[in-house]
Amino acid sequence: MQREIITTADGSKTIQIKDWEEQYHSKHGAVQEAYHVFIKHGLELFKGENIRILEIGFGTGLNAFITLLESKALDLKIEYHGIEAYPVALHEIKELNYVSILKAGAMQAYFDKMHNSSWEEKSNINSNFTLLKLKKFFSDIDDEQLHDLIYFDAFGARVQPELWTVEIFQKMFTALKPGGFLVTYAAKGSVRRAMQEVGLVVERLPGPPGKREMLRAKRPS
């Protein structure tokens, strides 16, 4: 499928799959979306803790990098697991401008380390952040009560409906610790109902730029 680097509304870049008319991040602002969905409504629920995060769709590494940047302010020690069936090529990563747009030049080495680290091997990115990148399909996830927080950032249900099913969300429920949270940019009724069917308690929240709503779900304690 044909891919190209595009610039989103906040100046940050993302990858577009032209055949699908789908992007790795919102055209309305890749960085803005990441902060709104995954940091404001996910990571900021935790302060001063040791937590484990599962990202469904590691993609460009933007969510992981922003989480690393924010971990210091929130006094968090993070073990981060990123799942990706089709890793983004390093030559594409080099065309993205996340370090500069985030004014994080001092953190360039950490961004590079995230992408240069080996798949299937845990890597210490810094003293408070470890990364484990796993090349696998979401349907193959079999974690049990392992994660405090899930970033569900798969391609949209319009192009990959099989990623937004009861079966997948049952795996997410099982992977979460009791009291753990899942956050996603999605807000479709079918997605919300699939989450509720497996026992997640779901709330609608204001969405990022370009979207009216998003969803946050909790595994009951």
Which keywords apply here?
single chain, 221 residues, alpha/beta, Rossmann fold, eight-stranded mixed β-sheet, three-stranded antiparallel β-sheet, 7 helices, 11 strands, globular
How is the secondary structure organized here?
Elements: E1 3-7, E2 13-17, E3 22-23, H1 30-40, E4 50-56, H2 62-71, E5 77-83, H3 90-93, H4 98-101, H5 108-116, E6 123-126, E7 129-134, E8 147-152, H6 166-175, E9 176-184, H7 189-197, E10 201-206, E11 213-218
Helix pairs in contact: 1-2, 6-7
Account of the 3D structure:
There is one protein chain. The chain has 221 residues and is of the alpha/beta class. The protein has a single domain, classed as Rossmann fold (3-Layer(aba) Sandwich), CATH 3.40.50. Helices cover 26% and strands 29% of the residues. The protein is built from seven helices and eleven strands. The strands form two sheets. It has an eight-stranded mixed beta sheet, with helices on both faces. The chain has a three-stranded antiparallel beta sheet with strand order 1-2-3, with no helix packed on it. Helix 1 (30-40) packs across helix 2 and helix 6 (166-175) packs across helix 7. The relative contact order is 0.16. The model has no long low-confidence stretch (mean pLDDT 96).
